[in-house]
Design brief:
11 helices, mainly alpha, 2 strands
């Protein structure tokens, strides 16, 4: 009887935690939506800012955010997945490898502004890329690497060894087993890490502040070495600079709503792919 009471208390506590989380999530979404929807229009989504960014739209800002996010993922996903494959499938079990794994996990907790300073020192100045899409994408890619590596490792480790042994016993090489058996099976877990990385990268301000973002730029970027406007920095600039705080505040909420929608859209697409993979391999 006592055990059942404790069990009910535990379940009730978990349910309360879920309701609390959903409440705060719903409050944030409602807060951003109710204030941002007022400025959303076709003109706002398709035109460039004008009149000290108090009129027009944010089309170049949306495009810049897309370029930075896409560039960072093109850099981070292949490299992170390759690192995870090596650590899980090829690396010997040794003290050094364990140190590397711990270092990767600790790297995920480094403040984003530190990555921004690293990108400024290495990509902007040392490599001479300047303040550009390339510098920002590489910096954001390094920021996303620890999360992608950790999630990919967990997904690869979760694949049963019996599947690997069955493939090897049929004459497949180790790489063929990884490519055709292990990776497709682990793909849902890998996509989870990519989803979380996209959400973090798209909303980062400090790294692009040093490496890619421009306060204001006419037109769209024409190369990977161009400066770019991006939603996170644009929101920051609207809320802290300028002589029209009321108009700028409304536009900032509109940008926040667009950023939230883009992250949710990308996450929804990745979740859809993940669910299809799970049902296919299930």
């Amino acid at each position: 009887m006592k055990g059942k009471v404790l069990q009910n208390i535990g379940f009730s506590s978990l349910f309360l935690c879920i309701l609390t989380t959903l409440f705060f999530l719903g409050t944030i979404i409602y807060f951003i939506f109710s204030r941002g929807i007022q400025v959303i229009s076709w003109e706002f989504l398709t035109q460039a800012p004008r009149n000290a960014m108090t009129e027009g739209g944010v089309a170049p800002v949306i495009v810049g955010t897309f370029y930075l996010t896409l560039g960072s993922m093109l850099f981070a996903v292949p490299l992170g997945l390759a690192c995870a494959i090596y650590l899980c499938e090829y690396s010997p079990k040794s003290f050094v490898v364990n140190i590397i794994r711990i270092s990767i996990n600790n790297l995920a907790g480094v403040p984003s502004v530190v990555f921004g300073l690293f990108g400024l020192s290495v990509f902007v100045k040392l490599f001479g890329f300047g303040v550009s899409i390339l510098s920002g994408s590489l910096t954001l890619g390094i920021l996303a690497l620890p999360l992608i590596i950790s999630a990919s490792q967990e997904a690869l480790v979760a694949v049963p060894h019996s599947i690997r042994e069955a493939s090897l016993s049929l004459g497949a090489s180790k790489w063929q087993t990884i490519k055709r058996i292990v990776l497709p099976t682990a793909l849902p877990g890998i996509l989870t890490g990519v989803i979380l990385s996209v959400g973090r990268v798209a909303g980062e301000t400090a790294p692009i502040l040093f490496t890619a973002a421009a306060f204001y730029k006419r037109g769209y970027p024409n190369s990977i070495f161009s400066e770019v406007m991006a939603l996170p920095y644009h929101i920051y600039a609207l809320m802290t600079e300028g002589a029209h705080p009321v108009k700028q505040k409304a536009i900032a909420y509109g940008c926040s709503l667009i950023l939230l929608f883009l992250v949710l859209l990308i996450s929804a697409i990745a979740i859809f792919i993940r669910q299809r993979q799970r049902s296919y391999h299930g």
